[in-house]
Design goal:
A hairpin with a 1-residue loop joins strand 1 and strand 2. The protein is built from 13 helices and six strands. It folds into two domains: 158 residues, no CATH class; 87 residues, no CATH class. 48% of the residues lie in helices and 14% in strands. It is globular, with a radius of gyration of 21 Å. Strands 5-4-3-2-1-6 form a six-stranded mixed beta sheet, sandwiched between helices.
Length: 283
């Protein structure tokens, strides 16, 4: 009798979808790390309007106390070649960003629409370079190709959209975790790598739960929003929700992430034993 592993699956897309979803989690954590570093990120909202929405303060384009919103559509691919405009159009991030533009245009927000790509851009492709910098609307060829792709007129509204579009590249999936972990290590100098790894695992868990709309304990109290709408309530990571992680980075004597072991039901797993031996203080 043949083992199922020896039979070619008619649809093997599940594993690929999961890898791409996990990559999106790592990309969202990069903005969370900016919060930990004391940067301008105010909060990160997951899977609401776009894949990731990063809100920043102190942007030169905004009035005092006004937030700048970055709507990010994240795209991955297995190919290692640089992205051309043709590649970007084939992955369709602009179609999603066009819909987002229609939803938020006229709301008074100051915002960008970001196509986040795994890998890097082709420096020899003038059109994708212009698009990445918000100058796609200045080039007739770029406008016409995007208009045909979106099936919309080449008019002032399209030019307005293209001036809001940015293209941002991220390190590839096989490197993103190591890249983010190095950043976290820089924020907690002197901490053992076992502690850094455990903290990063916790940041991934919290971000993953936000993407699934699963609120952490006391989420409502932690959100700095009056009467947040239900669609956002469980999807936002703010500085308050990671305050304990920041404390752990600056206070090595603090008990590490004791809620992680509490949430792992059943007998003590190898992960918990690793956390206890290598990362967590006794109390």
């Amino acid at each position: 009798m043949a083992d199922p592993i020896e039979i070619e699956a008619p649809d093997d897309s599940g594993s690929v979808t999961l890898r791409r979803y996990e990559y999106q989690v790592h990309v969202a954590v990069q903005a969370v790390l900016e919060m930990l570093a004391g940067g301008t990120v105010e909060h990160v909202t997951c899977e609401h309007i776009e894949d990731i929405v990063v809100a920043r303060r102190d942007d030169a384009q905004c009035a005092a106390e006004e937030l700048f919103w970055d709507y990010q559509q994240i795209k991955t691919r297995d190919a290692v070649e640089p992205w051309t405009l043709t590649d970007v159009l084939s992955k369709k991030p602009l179609k999603s960003l066009w819909r987002t533009h229609g939803a938020v245009r006229g709301t008074g927000q100051v915002y960008h629409l970001t196509a986040g790509l795994e890998g890097y851009l082709d420096p020899g492709d003038e059109l994708v370079t212009a698009l990445s910098r918000g100058h796609g609307g200045d080039l007739e060829t770029c406008r016409k190709r995007v208009a045909a792709h979106l099936k919309v007129p080449d008019d002032d509204q399209l030019s307005e959209f293209l001036h809001l579009v940015r293209v941002r590249t991220f390190v590839r999936r096989e490197s993103v975790e190591a890249h983010n972990t190095r950043v976290l290590a820089d924020l907690g100098p002197g901490l053992p790598m076992a502690t850094i790894d455990a903290l990063y695992t916790e940041l991934l868990r919290r971000t993953r739960e936000a993407m699934q709309g699963r609120p952490v304990a006391r989420w409502t109290e932690l959100l700095t929003v009056d009467n947040p709408p239900p669609a956002v309530l469980s999807k936002r990571v703010s500085a308050a929700t990671i305050a304990d992680v920041r404390q752990r980075l600056t206070r090595p004597d603090h008990v590490l992430l004791e809620d992680l072991s509490q949430q792992l039901a059943g007998s003590e797993t190898s992960l918990v034993r690793k956390l206890r031996r290598g990362a967590a203080s006794v109390g």
